[in-house]
Amino acid sequence: MANTKSAKKRIKVTMKKTLRNRIIKSRTKTAMKKVVAACALNDRPTAVMALNGAVKTIDKATSKGVYHKNNAARKKSKLAKMVNKISA
Fold it and tell me: Are 48 and 83 in contact (CB under 8 A)?
């Protein structure tokens, strides 16, 4: 257990940030799952709408420092490829 006042504060701050990051990651994963589900049903209009929402949530997570920019780009690219495949 932490002994100093600053160490106790760091534990509190870390717990807060961890919770915030977990919430943001969960939202992002849910948005991504919606895209995958729409692609599985070959429903292009729904997939495009879900993709727009997913890209928005991924960008928000990146701007808050939850994801690295390259990781976010990879996630968006993967989803876009899935959506483009069902249109072909």
Answer: yes
